[in-house]
Amino acid sequence: MLRLLLVDEQRMFVEALTQYLSTESDLWVADSSYPSETDLLERARIAWPDIAVVDIAVLGTRVHEVLRRLEEVCPDVRVVVLTSTVDSDLAVRAARAGAAAWLPKERGISELVEVLRLVGRGHAWYPPEVLGEVLCALRREAGPAGTDHDPLAVLSVREREVLAVMAEGKRGRQIAAELFISVQTVRKHTRGILTKLNVHTQLEAAMLASSGGEMPALAETAVRALPR
């Protein structure tokens, strides 16, 4: 069961969403708030959610700083950002900060539930209307393929090991068993890999690693085995 923290300025929205999610057997709202930044961090520390669902209005232009502090308080949490407007600049900032998903509220609660389950399985999700700009921005920062820049230089030794096993098509528990670490540690390293490499999915991480020449057989395996 996924533990959720809901953070939104609109009390009615949070209450309606909490009531809807109570009917889903695999989702549990551990806490909710109508917040200040301090309240968000404190509630995350106590609730220790798997996923924090946060309205972009709470984060504003300080999205990177707030999400960085949230990760310090609760390292394993994955963030789904809700938005009432289409703002590709804020979407890029959220992606840079490591947000796993960016979902317009107009998409509806049923689609939110699907996204929560995807994120809970380690995937990421951004809508088509902002995805292009997000990917372009992150690709520019990652640097062009075929240069002398090693895209894996930012990764720790353990993160490289996790990425190598991930590229074989193995998932959380399998990676944990092979590397003799906990599933939570795998999730933490996976998030670190995606954030440091400035990508959204495990497939992109594997492809970027392959383009740097560090893992020669990575790309073909990744295309066959990893989620898209």
Short description:
It holds the Pfam family GerE. This protein is α/β, with parallel strands linked by helices.
Description:
With 228 residues, the protein is of the alpha/beta class. The chain has 12 helices and 5 strands. The chain has helices spanning 11-21, 37-47, 56-59, 63-73, 88-96, 109-120, 128-142, 157-166, 172-179, 183-196, 202-211, 218-225; strands at residues 2-7, 27-33, 51-55, 78-83, 101-104. A 5-stranded parallel sheet has the order 2-1-3-4-5, with helices on both faces. Helix 1 (11-21) links the parallel strand 1 and strand 2 (27-33). The radius of gyration is 17 Å and the shape is globular.
CATH-defined architecture of the largest domain: 3-Layer(aba) Sandwich
Cα distance spanning the termini: 23 Å
In the predicted model, the low-confidence regions spanning at least 5 consecutive residues are 213-228
Number of domains: 2
The main pleated sheet reads as: 5 strands, parallel
Radius of gyration: 17 Å
- Proportion in β-strands: 5-15%
Task: Kindly report the CATH topology of the largest domain.
Answer: Rossmann fold
Give the CATH level 1 class of the largest domain.
Alpha Beta
Organism: Actinopolyspora mzabensis
GO molecular function: DNA binding
Protein name: Two component transcriptional regulator, LuxR family
Keywords: DNA-binding, Phosphoprotein, Transcription, Transcription regulation
